Amino acid sequence: MASDGTEIRASSLGEFGLIERLARILDESAKDGDGVPGLVLDIGDDCAAIRRESLTDVYTTDTMVDGVHFRTGEISWRDLGWKSMAVNLSDVASMGARPVMSLVTLGLTGKESLSDLEELYRGIADITQELGGVVAGGDIVRSPVLFITVAMTGEAAVTAGGAAFNRARLMAGSMTGSTAGAGYPTAASQLKFEAGSKQAADGAALLRRDAMSVGDLIAVTGTIGDSGGGLRVLADGLSGTAADLLKRAHFRPVPRMAAGVALVTQGVVSAMDVSDGIADDLGKMCMASGVAAKVRMPAVPVSDELKACFPDDFTAIALAGGEDYELLFSAPEPVMAAVAPSIGVPVSVIGEVIEGEPGSVTVVDERGRPIEMAVGWDHLDG
Amino acid sequence: MASDGTEIRASSLGEFGLIERLARILDESAKDGDGVPGLVLDIGDDCAAIRRESLTDVYTTDTMVDGVHFRTGEISWRDLGWKSMAVNLSDVASMGARPVMSLVTLGLTGKESLSDLEELYRGIADITQELGGVVAGGDIVRSPVLFITVAMTGEAAVTAGGAAFNRARLMAGSMTGSTAGAGYPTAASQLKFEAGSKQAADGAALLRRDAMSVGDLIAVTGTIGDSGGGLRVLADGLSGTAADLLKRAHFRPVPRMAAGVALVTQGVVSAMDVSDGIADDLGKMCMASGVAAKVRMPAVPVSDELKACFPDDFTAIALAGGEDYELLFSAPEPVMAAVAPSIGVPVSVIGEVIEGEPGSVTVVDERGRPIEMAVGWDHLDG
Which of A346, B3, B101, B267 has the fewest Cβ atoms within 10 angstroms? Predict the structure, then answer.
């Protein structure tokens, strides 16, 4: 990417030399008081070590591969750094948890320039300073394709007493116990955890996928489809202010960290982030919760920019576009009424949880007629 | 790899179908009482969630890329699963910590067969049942090259009172404080952490790279060079019992989990695992600790099998081979004398920590003459 005459090939520095240069970016960007809470050891030893005071931690990982999840030359290196962290932060937000720290793995072809990788790390510094989850370590490996894997740890925002409402709500919910064994992932436990008992025993409140109840209202934060619209803008070569905003939504999504914590603090128990398209993701939540959903398309919040760029397609883009990183959640009407105006971001009620084939989502138009939906994309195929 | 007529291409199952099949392997392999301690949520939600009772956790990640760190067709899928976990478990062992759980990311080309990936997961189940670090979640992405990234969490084995000896020992050590900032990785902190003060404040004992002191004896567990020998066996096409043992050391290394905990429990403060070759890794420890080292080559433990296969080269292989996943540690003579016979694995004292150019390692032969060393390989170049 960089084209000045002084370009330094990153591989010429060796692994430790490169780590030192990239760590410098994070260091220079840090303000007083930034940093991993309780950090004992960061990069330079076999493991990072952190003193953890919370009772319940959450763990997630997401990977971006060149040519699959992004294209160098299309996304800037700084945005790539931002986005690789954002997708993980969004997972933490959608649990109602707070980010603690990250491990960053770079798979490098050896052709990357140092200045490009430094830009990548500036993007990482940008978002971790704003939203947390600072880098405590990682790994750099050689690879025929550039990829970035982030593993992130967070801590439950609400524990013990604060979860009392949650626990009562979960116990009273529509869930049945699963037959999951000794903590191992099973086909059954993948779809439904013993939410009530585990949550109660644990004392921590988390926003789960499997805790929707029939009668809940379904809502989303922000607007839906802008990131998918950004991808279409790139494919179609559109330009202008609206197109630029959509591209920014695609390249530099802002995960809803504070909103996630606000939701769990105010008694919401079921949420996920919108990464694969609202229809697909809502289907996953319904499947995990053993329920169905009905969504009113006119209620799905769509930006004026998306409508302006794609006056004919905005509905399809909003339903199936993906990578919105907004929060999709459900709650009984009284909880929703209290939460909607008080979590600091726009909330739109888009439908409700109903009985039916588990996982089935019906989207209806302004006259109540079902809208044919594109199937959500699959990570392995798409 | 699989060549039977019923081969199922893994990508035909889609991401969730594949996750279900692979999770089944872990489930079927699990015995009662296995599983992640305190698991609240495993795969199927946005994050894994775990109730943590320890005060200090460690975090590490390691990646294996096809064609760089292994070759499909050369290593079996089951061994590949084993090894991808072993390299992370070894990092946890070398901190004196106990493994808690793992996130596994698979980068798949789409050409892998289901049966091969199931074998991979059987290898993962083999080692986690034996040594811990069971899988709590992960990610599957499409990639032009097969890769496996594991992010692992562990907990300090010794905390508070148990670390009293450690703290005293650290405070009395040869370390000086670094100028590291607010917990951010810096060029300085990469080489030297504020070991004494952080360790004391934290109350947890960890085996660190930066805590060697002049006068310490240096030791290693097991034998050195077998894995590097296995790689040479493959390149040279050797066969026979000795060659097979070396290949096994390369494909299925056994990290020193119990020995790591035993070391930290008995007051050792400085260790790392041998991944890049004993000369290179000892150099890193010396650099981090601001000291130099002298190693007597005849004291370096080398297996009869390595000598049998490579009678002329075994010294070079032992020094620079890498991927031994033995523990390299230092301690004052009285501590070493107590520890060596009591950690359950063979321990060989190979040299001592001396004053000198930080990071410099001198290896001498049986007559005290310096041996010319090959430079340790670099992850980015090798």
Answer: B3
